[in-house]
Amino acid sequence: GETSIEGGSHFIDAGKALISAADAAGSQDYACPHLLRDIGESLKEIGEGWSTSWEAVTYSAYDASGFFVSLSQLQKRQVLAKAYAAAAGDLSAISAISGCVSVGPPSSVPALISLSTHLKEAADAVSDEEISSGSECKDSVALSRLLKVASVSIGDLAKEYD
After folding, report:
1. CA distance 156 to 112
2. Labelling 72: which of 38, 39, 123, 156 has CA 20 to 30 A away?
3. What is the pTM of this model?
């Protein structure tokens, strides 16, 4: 049956975007596809628990944070490594919020706003690389676009608590 996940749908959308990015990312230079997929799956799990189990959210956020740390360590470009590491920090902050589904989501708004910003920074870094190297790499176009989609989804979620 359909369960109401309210704000969690934004995390599910963000997760789906990163899973699509993993499918598009052929080059190990831009992103390790398996890590992007792991992050996407973790974000979907956050979305599934968002209004039903805050404990599940914290575990999934912790996992996603670890995957982002690994992803940042694989980057040759400092600006992209920094954006991924910052996203890891945002998810780590969410994983550290204790409470229940009435406390967790509103408490996570600063981290959500920050996560949205860092995903956009990552998208811009991928896009800048594309322009500066003159390579019309399809995977980087898709990765940049899908990171932006994820950024917007997380930003929309944060706005629900204004």
Report:
1. 9
2. 156
3. 0.90
